[in-house]
Amino acid sequence: MPVFAGQSREELRRAYLDAWRRSQAGAVLSPLEAQLAAVIAEHPEYHAWLEGGEAALAEEFGPERGRTNPFLHLGMHLAIREQVATDRPGGIRALHALLAIQAGGPREAEHRMMEALGETLWEAQRAGRAPDEQAYLERLKRLR
């Protein structure tokens, strides 16, 4: 999400905590806060942990701990939603719609799409280049 470009890990995490806290308090949310709160609301397994507040900011989620990073998981939902909304890479909106039918809804489709997104981002980071949109789309097509 470009809005987060240049922010530290703590700032990114704080945005999630603050959006959730404000949502629960019934505050008027900015469009970004509303997106963050919506994706958090869809994941009740993270609610108590996020409501723990400051401890969540410092939590580590290395592979050796065997736990999913909630911030990464929620962020991937937001990234996929942005891709679908803008249809970038081209054709992702139609693939998402098909997967949503097959998987039982948009959120479930996003869960299926996350591995392909993660693999594509990992490859790009490892190679020091931009993500390969065509390779990403091919991975998504194999999910059908």
Quickly give the structural class: mainly alpha
Q: In one word, what is the shape?
A: globular
> What would the average pLDDT be, to the nearest integer?
92
Please count the beta strands (DSSP E, at least 2 residues each).
0
* Helix-strand sequence: HHHHHHHH
Cα gyration radius (Å): 16 Å
The low-confidence runs, each spanning 5 or more residues with pLDDT under 50, are none
Tally of separate helices: 8
- Biggest sheet overview: none
Strand content: under 5%
What is the number of independent domains?
A: 2
The helix fraction, in percent, is 55-70%
What distance lies between the first and last C-alpha atoms, to the nearest angstrom?
26 Å
